[in-house]
Amino acid sequence: MPGELLRVVTAGSVDDGKSTLVGRLLHDAKAVLADQMTAVEVASDRRGYDVADLALLVDGLRAEREQGITIDVAYRYFATPRRTFVLADTPGHVQYTRNTVTGASTADVAVILVDARTGVVDQTRRHAAVAALLRVAHIVLAVNKMDLVDFDEPVFDRIVTDFTSVASSLGLPGFTPIPLAALTGDNVVERSIRMPWYSGPPLLRFLEDVEAREGSDIPARFPVQVVMRPRSAEYPDYRGYGGKVEAGTLRVGDAVTVLPSGRTTSIEGIDTADGALDWAGAGRSVVVRLADNIDLSRGDVIVGAGDPRPVVARQITATLCWLSDRPLRPNDRFLLRHTTRSVRAVVDDIVGRLDITTVTSAVTDVLELNDIGTVRLRIAEPIIADPYALNRSTGALLLVDEASGATMAAGMVVEASA
Is 363 helix (H, G, I), strand (E, B) or coil? Predict the structure, then answer.
């Protein structure tokens, strides 16, 4: 049976070969059905190619096929005897940075591609910044198209040195550099005999061996999604709270606190459609029953005993990736969505914008499409938040236009205060 699930996102500049890499990975890992490969071969022959264009396994939209670029996030699922993968191929164009944020938001590993001929460019810095902000646990610097620079080791070393400077400025704890040639398959699934100077693993072996993002060590976080009150003779007084464990572990008998009220109680039972559980870990959707009759509603959070405690916040400093054509300015108002709660919010101040070229914060009073910046938000009702660095679920938020319902920004909590 394949092992634990690993979520991987690929990112890079235009024509760095992301779709070709994903296609090669799927093909060489024997994760492509015969009819899919036949369709790719027919399409490649129609275009006049001598060999099958494996990028067509990923660039599935008509507009993508016509333009030869990736527009949307393309998800592919495959498994090897050692692991199961969810692979997200994201666009390289700057105008689709919002899609890259989408793909990276749940990733355990980010594979950032660089063309060996051009090295580190602005989009490389942008995607590294997104990976750093979203706290992706593992970064792979995939130096692609090594076949076009004669598999030259000094070229690879120079790019690694340049990216090391970028990673250091972003506070990335480290990265794994791999030289490869997606078109020919060198160092994708099998080690390349044309790069004997590289002693590390090929890409697939690295992905099979790397540890998935570990669950947070913080106490349990359980945002209530729905109150369950079935009316039946079998359960005349049943009261349960449905939701997903976003961090830690809930166990029957554990002492817990309900926020924002601050009431303390204990867990009487944990139920699922398949029966009762003694415990439930992060990622598990369950119904929790409490020992005491406490009034909870959607958006309240059941938290485990111990530190750190989440903040019952009315003010938030957050890093945003601005996703709208309409610029963001101070005093703009939105609906803020956080875990299972939606509250009104106003922008008090724009602290700064990330300058991708210098990877530093620049003073600004406006955020434009695809800008990454830090803002201060004032909210009408309290939310129970952790810093994003502590927990990716309870530290994430969205800003939504109240009139249209359009998502305007994806955000990460830097600091929350009462």
Answer: coil
